[in-house]
Inverse folding.
């Protein structure tokens, strides 16, 4: 039978070094933090230059400097596909502002009308997004076989709900144009 002393001296147990003192542990933590700060290292000027490149890419549609959520030919196709259509979903923000104004008038008839407009708008948005989703996914699967369609519905819906002049990256096609 083995004794408790035998198990403590086996190489499988223990960490093989003494526990550092608090002073040593704090010094090591400070050294690691300082090393991370300096190694991260892009200067303010470099960060500003990178941010300027990204802003310019958002205006011009240059795929090299776009954020990861907007990169790639599939996302470009979805952007162009959404931008070449005018949908009722684009009217969400202006109509919501009007409906909210009705809700704050104090007139019960206008308040009821505002609530009904918001309810109908939500229903219209859900129906539109579901209809456009099926058409878009069919197009993406035919043009980009084997590509993942994960996240495209959300990307499409969020782009559709933005006012055209506020969309980023800026629209590269006009309403009514054909998407290539």
């Amino acid at each position: 039978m083995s004794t408790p002393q035998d198990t403590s001296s086996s190489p499988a147990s223990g960490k093989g070094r003494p526990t550092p003192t608090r002073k040593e542990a704090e010094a090591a933590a400070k050294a690691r933090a300082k090393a991370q700060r300096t190694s991260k290292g892009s200067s303010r000027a470099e960060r500003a230059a990178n941010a300027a490149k990204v802003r310019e890419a958002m205006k011009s549609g240059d795929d090299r400097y776009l954020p990861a959520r907007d990169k790639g030919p599939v996302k470009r196709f979805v952007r162009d596909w959404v931008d070449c259509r005018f949908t009722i979903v684009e009217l969400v923000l202006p109509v919501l502002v009007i409906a909210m104004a009705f809700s704050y008038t104090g007139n019960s008839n206008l308040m009821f009308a505002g609530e009904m407009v918001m309810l109908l708008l939500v229903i219209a948005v859900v129906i539109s997004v579901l209809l456009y989703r099926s058409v878009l996914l069919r197009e993406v699967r035919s043009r980009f076989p084997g590509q993942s369609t994960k996240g495209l519905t959300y990307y499409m819906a969020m782009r559709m709900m933005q006012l055209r002049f506020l969309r980023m990256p800026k629209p590269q096609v006009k309403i009514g144009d054909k998407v290539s």
In short: Residues 114 and 173 are 34 Å apart (CA to CA).
